[in-house]
Design a protein that fits this description.
Blueprint: H1 14-23, E1 25-27, E2 52-57, E3 67-71, E4 74-78, H2 82-92, H3 97-106, E5 115-117, E6 120-125, E7 135-138, E8 142-147, E9 153-158, E10 163-167, H4 170-197, H5 210-231, H6 238-249
Parallel strand pairs: 1-10
Antiparallel strand pairs: 2-3, 2-7, 3-4, 5-6, 6-7, 8-9, 9-10
């Protein structure tokens, strides 16, 4: 990041790239989809998710979902919603929606909640547009936030020396970023403890994939759920318990109606 310069920005129309180079500012309140020429490749778990700087909501309706993604020195456009981009990054790190919901309650985070998985520290910003989505900024890369006389907009100084403009207020955005950074510190302390137990040595040649981590966690939670149900005298089919646990981990808050039909309430 720190070695990145304005001359290395890729993915923009030549006229827009020249404007950014001349001003040193990426004004996301004015950037249009047609200003971005490269398509977003973020479909695999090995994409450079932690270095996403900004995901700009360009959705106009709930059916027409679009976003602009800035990662390292490259800017992309995508037909995915900003929420889907963030969820892909979260899942690639083996993180589930329930993890963030539990952390939000534990640390009394302000809504809308961030998504924090190590260096993937994404904080919602911008007001939701017609599509009902937020934009997201990586709080690790923010150095300063300043108001500059335009109501509802802030100028953000990044650690690479570049500046960007988004729709937000200084106090609101700093509150969310500081909360997300505090959560990151808590995660880091737990990780340091775990590393210390293993003497920071790599024990095995094989490293689990994010999909394997999620599957492993699902199996553990299903086992716990079965034990709890058995403890209170309830017996559910294994596949039903697994589906319910999967829904809970995925943040599905719909109510489950226990009875002969065993339906999930709409």
């Amino acid at each position: 990041m720190k070695s990145s310069t304005l001359s290395h920005i890729k993915g923009l129309r030549p006229e827009m790239k020249q404007q950014v180079q001349e001003t040193g500012v990426l004004d996301f309140t004015k950037l249009r989809l047609e200003d971005v020429i490269d398509e977003y490749p973020g479909t695999s778990s090995d994409f450079d998710w932690p270095n996403i700087i900004f995901v700009k909501n360009m959705s106009t309706t709930r059916q027409q979902r679009q976003a602009i993604v800035w990662v390292n020195d490259h800017i992309f456009r995508t037909d995915m919603s900003p929420t889907k981009v963030i969820n892909k990054g979260r899942a690639a790190a083996g993180h589930m929606k329930l993890d963030m919901a539990i952390a939000a309650k534990k640390y009394h985070l302000t809504q809308p909640y961030p998504v924090v998985v190590g260096r993937f520290l994404m904080v919602p910003t911008d007001k939701p547009q017609k599509g009902g989505h937020h934009s997201w900024i990586n709080g690790h890369f923010v150095d300063e936030i300043n108001s500059f006389g335009v109501k509802g907009k802030v100028r953000i100084q990044l650690e690479n020396g570049m500046e960007m403009i988004v729709c937000d207020t200084k106090d609101r955005l700093w509150t969310h970023i500081n909360e997300a950074r505090d959560l990151f510190k808590a995660q880091s302390r737990r990780q340091d403890f775990a590393d210390n137990q293993h003497h920071n040595d790599k024990q095995f040649d094989y490293v689990m994939t994010s999909e394997e981590v999620i599957a492993d966690r699902l199996e553990e939670h299903v086992g716990l759920a079965k034990g709890l149900l058995s403890k209170v005298g309830l017996v559910f089919p294994d596949e039903e318990v697994e589906e319910l646990v999967r829904q809970v981990l995925d943040g599905d808050t719909r109510k489950y109606r226990y009875g002969d039909e065993r339906d999930v309430a709409e």
